[in-house]
Specification:
Largest sheet: 9 strands, antiparallel
CATH architecture of the largest domain: Up-down Bundle
Strand content: 15-25%
Structural class: alpha+beta
CATH topology of the largest domain: Multidrug efflux transporter AcrB transmembrane fold
CATH class of the largest domain: Mainly Alpha
Helix content: 40-55%
Number of strands: 28
Number of domains: 6
CATH superfamily of the largest domain: Multidrug efflux transporter AcrB transmembrane domain
Shape: elongated
Number of helices: 35
Length: 1048
C-alpha cells in the first residue's frame, strides 16, 4: 500500500486530472439521468382480459375463466392465479414467483400466452381474443387530466385533445375514460321482423355482405394495367337502411328501413364518470420509458394552458407524477445540502482549514463517482437514489478522518509531508479497509431483499456500497496527495523562518482546547467505568432485554408508513336493481362531503359509477349498482392533517348519509410505495357457496366486535336479477334449432352485436344490431322474438323456453381455481394491526377440510419483509465477523467488537418508539446498516489497543488499564468526529428541516439515535468487554494452572 501511495504522491498532476475527470463525468451523468419519484418496478403480474358481451358472471366463469385457468395449471413459474368473472368480462391475474428475474418473467409471459392460445372451447362471440398485459411502473398513470362538462360539450373537443396529447414528445399513450365514441344502433322492431319472416341473424348476415370493400385484381391490356376495385362500403351511416334483407327475383322485397330504425348514441360501456361534482371524462397519460419526466410534464402543462376550452368545459390535473418527483427530489436535495454544510462545519471546527477542506472533499468526489456508476448501469435519479446519498453522506468522511488524523500525528512527530502521508496510509489502511468493508457487508445483504419491497429499496444499499468504495479510493490515493502537496506549496515561502524554530521541518498541528478537556474527562470517566465494568455490562443487558420486549409487544409494524399518502378511495355498493342513474344520484351525497374539504387539502375528486376498480385507466364498468369515488389531496407538506385523519372525518360524516341513501361503503387509503394490498385480506376458499358465505359472515361478525377495526366488508357484489332460461331440448330438436341459435339470438337482441363499421380518416363508426327499447323492456319478449329455423319457418320461442327468475351474482372470484370470498377492512393502526387481525382470525377459525383460509395483503407482506430483514441481518453479522477475524487474525477477538452490535439496537428501538413511529422496513434497514457503522469505530479502537497485549496478559488486573485507556482516549476524536459527521448528515432529513418524508425521516431518525447510542457503547462498553475478556482469560489460566499442579 505504501508503494501505491508513493506512486501517486510523485504524480500530483495525474491525481488532479483524475479528480477533474471524475467531476466532469459526474456532472454530465447528473444532467443526463432521468428524474423520477420512485424507482422502476415490475409487479410480476400478468393480466388476461376477455370481453364476452351480454354474458352473466356465471357464464363468464364457466365458459372462459375456468377454461383458461385449467390450461394455466401446466405452466411452470406461477405463484398463484386470481380471477374475477363479472358480467361480460373475465379478468385473470397471474402472479409470478417472487424472485423471478426479467428474462424468466418474459419466458413466463410467453408460456402464459401459449397456454391461452391452446384454449379451444372459448365462445365464438367473445370480442377478439383474450388480451394479455403486464404491469410495471411504466404503466402507472403519469398525468391524469379531469375534464368537466356534458357529453355534447365535450364531444369532438375531447377526442381532438386526446389525439394531440398522444402526439406530445415523451407520451406513450393517452387513454380516454368516460366518453365513449358514438355508434349506430340498429333498433329492430320484432313485430315487423316476424311479419316479414326475418330474424336477427339474417339481418346481421345481410348487412355484413352489403358493407364490403376489396380489390378485384388487375386488368391487363396492350395499353396499360388497371386495378379493378370493388367498392361496396357505406358512404354515410344512413346508407345501411337501404340494405336488402330479403329480395325476390322480380325486385320486390324488404329493406332494413322497413323493419328497423337508426339511433346515433355513445357506446354503452356501463360506466359513468363525474369529475369535481359534474359530468365529465378523464384523459390518462402514460410516459414513454426513458423519457425525461420534467420535460414531458412541462410539455403537457404548456399544451393544456394553450388550449381553448369550449363553453361549459373546465379541467383540473388530479395527478402529476413529475410534481411528486420534483417535490421528493427537492426535499432530499435540500436536506442533503444542509447535512453537508453541518458536516463541513464540524470538520472546520475540529481540524485546521487545510485538513478540514481536503477531508470534506471526499464527499463530492464520492457522490460524483457514484453518479458515474449509476448512469453507466442505466439507473434513474429518484427519491431512494438520493436517500442512499443522505444515509452515506456523513460516512463518506469517516475513512478520510482516520487517515487525516494519522497524518497530522505523523507531522507532529516530525515527519516531512510525503513521508507522513505514506506512513498514515501504511499504518491505518487495514483498520480503514475493515471499517469500510464491514459497513459494505452490513448493507450488501439488503440488495437481495425479495419481492416488490426489494425492488423498491435495493438502490439504497447499492448507493451506500458504491459511495464507500469511492470514499476508499479518495482516502487511500487522493487525500494523502492533497494533504502533502497543499502543505508543501503553502509552506515553501516560510521554510527559512520555520527552520529556526523547527529544524526537523515538522509543523505541529494545533489541537482545540476543548478537545483536550474532552479527552481528560473521558479518561477519568473510562477509568471509573472499568472499575464497575460488570455493572455497566449488566445495565446494558437489562436495557437490551427491555428494548427487545418493547419492540415485540409495544410497537406496531408498518413496512411502508403512509403519513405522506395523497389520496383515498370510497368504495360504494347499493342494492341490486339500482340503475347507473340511481347509483350516480346516491354518490352525489358523498361528493358533497368531499367538496367541503378545504382548498389546502383537496386537489380534486372523480367518481366512477359502474365499477369499483381503483385502476384509473379502466374504460368499462361491470355492474350498475357499484361506484368508486377517488379523492386526490395536496402534498403532505401543505396540509395540517394526514390522509388517515381526513378519512376519519369523512367516515363520521358518511354514516348518517349512507343510511339515508341505502348504500354501503368502505374508505381506503391510496397508498404510496410498492403495492402491498389492503390492511388485511382473508380469503375464504371453497367451491361450496353456502359454506363459504357462512364462514365469511362469521369472520365479518367476529372482526366487527374487535377494537380498532373501523370497517369490515367482503368482495361479494349482488348483480342484477337474472332470468334463467330453461330449454325443452326435445322440442328444440324437432324445430331444427340448436341451443347456440337461441343463445346467439338472445344475445343480439339484448346486448347487441357489432355487425359492421364505417371507417373514415377521422373515426371508425360501429353498427350495433339489437331489438328496440320497447321490446327489450317487455317481459313477454319470448313471444315477440323473431327466430327462423333452417327451413325458413318462424319459431315461437315461448313454446320451447320458459323463464325461471333467480338472484344474480355480480362477480365471482377465484383463487388458484377455487371460488373465493375475500374479507377485508380498514383499521385504526394505533389500536390494532393487520398482523393482529390475522392471528385472531386464524386462532378463532382456521382452515378446515371444506373451507380453506388464506391470508394476503399488508400483514403477509409485512411478515415476509421482516423475515427477509432478519435473514439479511444474520448474513451481515456473519460477514462482519469473518472480516474482523481476517483483520485481527483471530477468531476470538472479533467477539469483543461484535458483542457491541446488539446493544446498538437499543438506540434505534427507543428513538423510533419515542418519536411515535412504527417499526418500518426503513427502520429495519437502519438497524442492519447500523451494524456496520458501529463496528467501524470499534475496530479502530480495538486495533489501537492491540498494539501491545503484553500488559493485558500480565498477572496484575490493573496493569493493562493504562494501555486500554490510552488507546481508547487516542481514538476519542476520530470516533466522535465520525459519529458527528454521520449524525449531522442525517439529522436534517430525520427532522425534515428541508422537507419531511415519512420513509426517509424514520430511517434517518433510527440511524442517528442508534449511532449516538452506539457511540456510548464503543466508548464505554467495548473497553469494558475487552477487560472482562481479560478477566476470563486470567481465570481460565488459573484454572488450568490448578489442574496442572493437581496432576503433578
Amino acid at each position: 500500500m505504501g508503494r501505491l501511495v508513493s506512486f501517486f504522491l510523485q504524480r500530483g498532476m495525474l491525481v488532479n486530472v483524475l479528480v477533474l475527470g471524475t467531476a466532469l463525468l459526474g456532472a454530465s451523468a447528473i444532467i443526463k439521468m432521468n428524474k423520477e419519484a420512485f424507482p422502476p418496478i415490475n409487479l410480476g403480474h400478468i393480466f388476461i382480459t376477455t370481453i364476452y358481451p351480454g354474458a352473466s358472471a356465471h357464464d363468464v366463469e364457466v365458459n372462459i375463466t375456468i377454461e383458461i385457468e385449467e390450461e394455466l395449471e401446466e405452466v411452470v413459474g406461477i405463484q398463484e392465479v386470481r380471477s374475477t368473472s363479472s358480467e361480460g368480462m373475465s379478468v385473470i391475474q397471474v402472479v409470478a414467483d417472487e424472485n423471478m428475474g426479467d428474462l424468466e418473467f418474459q419466458r413466463l409471459f410467453d408460456d402464459v400466452d401459449a397456454a391461452v392460445a391452446r384454449v379451444e372451447d372459448l365462445p365464438i362471440d367473445i370480442e377478439g381474443r383474450p388480451s394479455l398485459r403486464t404491469v410495471t411502473s411504466d404503466d402507472i398513470p403519469f398525468i391524469q387530466i379531469a375534464f368537466s362538462g356534458s357529453y355534447t360539450e365535450l364531444d369532438d373537443f375531447i377526442f381532438k385533445t386526446e389525439d394531440r396529447l398522444r402526439q406530445l414528445p415523451g407520451i406513450s399513450a393517452a387513454i380516454l375514460v368516460g366518453h365513449p365514441e358514438q355508434e349506430v344502433n340498429i333498433l329492430v322492431d320484432p313485430v315487423k321482423a316476424r311479419g316479414h319472416f326475418i330474424d336477427l341473424r339474417l339481418i346481421a348476415s345481410e348487412i355484413g355482405k352489403r358493407n364490403l370493400e376489396g380489390s378485384g385484381g388487375t386488368l391487363e391490356s396492350f395499353v396499360a394495367e388497371k386495378k379493378i376495385v370493388s367498392v361496396n362500403k357505406f358512404e354515410d351511416y344512413r346508407d345501411v337502411l337501404d340494405t336488402n334483407i330479403r329480395m325476390s327475383a322480380d325486385g320486390f322485397g324488404v329493406k332494413l328501413r322497413d323493419i328497423a330504425e337508426l339511433k346515433l348514441e355513445p357506446e354503452d360501456r356501463k360506466l359513468m364518470v363525474r369529475n369535481n361534482g359534474a359530468p365529465g371524462a378523464s384523459i390518462i397519460l402514460k410516459k414513454k420509458a426513458g423519457a425525461n419526466t420534467y420535460e414531458t410534464s412541462d410539455a403537457v402543462h404548456a399544451f393544456m394552458e394553450s388550449l381553448e376550452l369550449p363553453e361549459g368545459v373546465s379541467y383540473k390535473i388530479h395527478v402529476d407524477s413529475s410534481r411528486i418527483a420534483r417535490d421528493r427530489l427537492n426535499l432530499v436535495i435540500s436536506n442533503a445540502i444542509i447535512g453537508f454544510v453541518l458536516v463541513m462545519g464540524i470538520l472546520f471546527l475540529v481540524f485546521d482549514v487545510r485538513t478540514a477542506f481536503w477531508t470534506a472533499f471526499g464527499i463530492p468526489f464520492s457522490v460524483l463517482f457514484v453518479f458515474i456508476i449509476l448512469n453507466a448501469v442505466g439507473l434513474d435519479m429518484n427519491m431512494l437514489t438520493l436517500a442512499g446519498f443522505v444515509i452515506v453522506l456523513g460516512m463518506l468522511v469517516d475513512d478520510a478522518v482516520v487517515i487525516a488524523e494519522q497524518y497530522n500525528s505523523n507531522r507532529e512527530s516530525g515527519m516531512e509531508p510525503h513521508a507522513a502521508a505514506t506512513s498514515a496510509v501504511a499504518t491505518m489502511w487495514k483498520p480503514v479497509l475493515a471499517s469500510a468493508t464491514t459497513t459494505m457487508t452490513a448493507f450488501t445483504p439488503l440488495l437481495s431483499l425479495a419481492g416488490l419491497p426489494g425492488q423498491f429499496v435495493w438502490v439504497i444499499p447499492f448507493i451506500v456500497v458504491t459511495a464507500l468504495l469511492g470514499s476508499l479510493i479518495d482516502s487511500y490515493l487522493f487525500l494523502p496527495v492533497h494533504l502533502a502537496h497543499w502543505e508543501r506549496s503553502h509552506s515553501s515561502d516560510k521554510m527559512e523562518s520555520n527552520s529556526q524554530s523547527d529544524t526537523s521541518g515538522s509543523r505541529k498541528v494545533h489541537k482545540k482546547a476543548f478537545v483536550h478537556k474532552l479527552e481528560s474527562a473521558y479518561r477519568y470517566a473510562l477509568w471509573h467505568g472499568l472499575r464497575f465494568r460488570y455493572v455497566i455490562l449488566g445495565a446494558f443487558l437489562v436495557l437490551f432485554i427491555g428494548s427487545m420486549m418493547l419492540m415485540r409487544f409495544g410497537m406496531r409494524r408498518e413496512a411502508f408508513p403512509q403519513d405522506a399518502a395523497e389520496g383515498f378511495y370510497i368504495d360504494v355498493s347499493l342494492p341490486s336493481g339500482y340503475s347507473l342513474a340511481k347509483t350516480t344520484e346516491a354518490t352525489l351525497a358523498i361528493e358533497k362531503i368531499i367538496r367541503q374539504l378545504p382548498e389546502n387539502e383537496l386537489v380534486g375528486y372523480t367518481t366512477r359509477v359502474g365499477t369499483n376498480s381503483t385502476d384509473t385507466t379502466a374504460e368499462r364498468g361491470t355492474l350498475d349498482n357499484i361506484a368508486i369515488v377517488m379523492a386526490y389531496l395536496t402534498p403532505f407538506s401543505e396540509r395540517d392533517r394526514t390522509a388517515r385523519e381526513i378519512m376519519d372525518v369523512i367516515r363520521d360524516e358518511l354514516r348518517p348519509v349512507s343510511s339515508a341513501s341505502q348504500f354501503e361503503y368502505t374508505v381506503e387509503l391510496q397508498r404510496i410505495g410498492p403495492p402491498l394490498g389492503k390492511e388485511f385480506e382473508i380469503r375464504v376458499v371453497s367451491n361450496d357457496d353456502n359454506l363459504r358465505y357462512n364462514r365469511a359472515d362469521e369472520i365479518k361478525s367476529f372482526l366487527s366486535e374487535q377494537a380498532g377495526v373501523l370497517e369490515v366488508d367482503d368482495d361479494r357484489v349482488i348483480g342484477k336479477d337474472e332470468w334463467n332460461l330453461k330449454i325443452n331440448h326435445d322440442m328444440l330438436s324437432r324445430t331444427g334449432l340448436s341451443v347456440e341459435d337461441v343463445v346467439q339470438t338472445l344475445r343480439i337482441a339484448f346486448d347487441g352485436m357489432v355487425v359492421t363499421d364505417l371507417v373514415t380518416l377521422d373515426q371508425t363508426l360501429d353498427f350495433r344490431l339489437r331489438l328496440n327499447e320497447r321490446a327489450r323492456a317487455d317481459r313477454d319478449f319470448l313471444k315477440l322474438m323473431p327466430i327462423l329455423n333452417r327451413n325458413g319457418q318462424m319459431i315461437n320461442l315461448d313454446e320451447l323456453v320458459y323463464i325461471q327468475p333467480q338472484p344474480g351474482t355480480g362477480q365471482i372470484h377465484h383463487y388458484n381455481g377455487k371460488r373465493t370470498t375475500t374479507v377485508f377492512g380498514t383499521l385504526d393502526v394505533d389500536v390494532i394491526s393487520g398482523e393482529d387481525v390475522v392471528r385472531k382470525v386464524d386462532a378463532q377459525f382456521g382452515s378446515s377440510r371444506d373451507v380453506y383460509l388464506s391470508y394476503a395483503g399488508e400483514p403477509v407482506e409485512t411478515q415476509e419483509i421482516f423475515a427477509d430483514l432478519l435473514i439479511a441481518a444474520v448474513i451481515a453479522l456473519l460477514g462482519i465477523y469473518l472480516i474482523i477475524a481476517l483483520i485481527f487474525n483471530s477468531f476470538r477477538m472479533p467477539f469483543v467488537v461484535i458483542l457491541a452490535i446488539p446493544f446498538g439496537f437499543i438506540g434505534v428501538i427507543w428513538s423510533v418508539f419515542l418519536h411515535g413511529y412504527p417499526m418500518s422496513m426503513f427502520a429495519g434497514m437502519a438497524m442492519i446498516g447500523l451494524m456496520g457503522v458501529i463496528v467501524n469505530d470499534s475496530i479502530v479502537m480495538v486495533f489501537r489497543i492491540l498494539t501491545d497485549r503484553a500488559e493485558i496478559e500480565s498477572g496484575d488486573p490493573y496493569a493493562s488499564w493504562d494501555y486500554i485507556i490510552d488507546g481508547a482516549v487516542s481514538r476519542l476524536r476520530p470516533i466522535l468526529l465520525t459519529t458527528l459527521t454521520t449524525v449531522l448528515g442525517l439529522l436534517p432529513t430525520a427532522y425534515g428541516i428541508g422537507g419531511y418524508d415519512p420513509f426517509l425521516s424514520q430511517m434517518c431518525v433510527a440511524l442517528s439515535y442508534g449511532l449516538m447510542f452506539g457511540t456510548l457503547i464503543i466508548l464505554y462498553l467495548v473497553p469494558s468487554i475487552y477487560v472482562i475478556g481479560g478477566d476470563i482469560h486470567r481465570v481460565m489460566q488459573k484454572v488450568r494452572a490448578i489442574k496442572s499442579s493437581g496432576n503433578a
